[in-house]
UniProtKB/TrEMBL annotation:
Coiled coil: none annotated. InterPro entries: Isochorismatase-like_dom, Isochorismatase-like_hydrls, Isochorismatase-like_sf. Keywords: Hydrolase. It comes from Meridianimarinicoccus aquatilis. Pfam families: Isochorismatase (PF00857). The keyword Hydrolase applies. GO terms for molecular function: hydrolase activity. Residues 20-205 form the Isochorismatase-like domain. This is Cysteine hydrolase. The keyword Hydrolase applies. PANTHER family: FAMILY HYDROLASE, PUTATIVE (AFU_ORTHOLOGUE AFUA_2G08700)-RELATED, PEROXYUREIDOACRYLATE/UREIDOACRYLATE AMIDOHYDROLASE-RELATED.
Length: 220
């Protein structure tokens, strides 16, 4: 049986069961002037994972394995954005406000688009999600079932928010999950480190973590 060298122990690959989910690699989180920056964050650490994430995506495509992308964004009328979310964090501008890349976190605006380096290919699922987790109010569960996936590699931003929320729900739904250590990032290095450690703690209580090199070797 093939494995991915991972922590806390090797991840056993099942035939035809593996897919990649790339979370929220959008201009609004990665480029200056977007939502992440409006919360007062330095976006440069997130830009640093773009090459490794691109390599991971390319490896899945080359292996003929599904790649699914998500985008955190809301309808133009904000009907899917709870006021409690919009008001949180003291961002200025905040969700729905005009910014240098269009209205912040609004579907169809330039800032909500996935960065060009990681642009989805035709035929790859792109899930627009109003929550932090990618299952809430989206067709993600049905898409994964249709693809017959039972094992998921996760990449994207931010590690402790949308990536972790989605990975934990996937784990609860019975998926075996691997977080790509060098294809995920946070605005807060300590939060990323804590997330990696808590996911793989207690015998992979929520999943595994592995480097992009080890994931690509495993699926190669
Ligand atoms: C955040 C995300 N951090 N994609 N969104 O608000 O993690």
């Amino acid at each position: 049986m093939s494995v991915i060298t991972a922590a806390p122990f090797d991840f056993p690959l099942q035939s035809g069961a593996l897919g990649l989910i790339v979370i929220d690699m959008q201009r609004d989180f990665i480029e200056p002037g977007g939502f992440g920056a409006s919360l007062g964050n330095d976006v440069t650490p997130l830009q640093a994972i773009v090459p490794t994430t691109a390599r991971l995506i390319a490896g899945f495509r080359a292996a003929g394995l599904p790649v699914i992308h998500t985008r955190e964004c809301h309808r133009a009328d904000l009907s899917d954005c709870p006021p409690a979310k919009r008001g949180r964090g003291g961002a200025s501008p905040t969700i729905g406000d005009p910014g240098p890349m269009g209205r912040i976190l609004i579907a169809g605006e330039p800032g909500a688009e996935i960065i060009p380096e990681l642009a989805p290919l035709a035929g790859e699922a792109v899930i627009d999600k109003p929550g932090k987790g990618a299952f809430y109010a989206t067709p993600l569960g049905d898409i994964l079932a249709d693809l017959g996936l039972r094992q998921l590699v996760f990449a994207g931003v931010t590690t402790e928010v949308c990536v972790q929320s989605t990975l934990r729900e996937a784990n609860d739904r019975g998926f075996e999950c691997v977080l790509a250590e060098d294809a995920t990032e946070s605005y807060f290095p300590a939060f990323k480190q804590a997330t990696l450690e808590m996911i793989r703690a207690q015998g992979a209580i929520a999943g595994w973590t592995a480097t992009v090199d080890d994931i690509l070797t495993g699926i190669g």
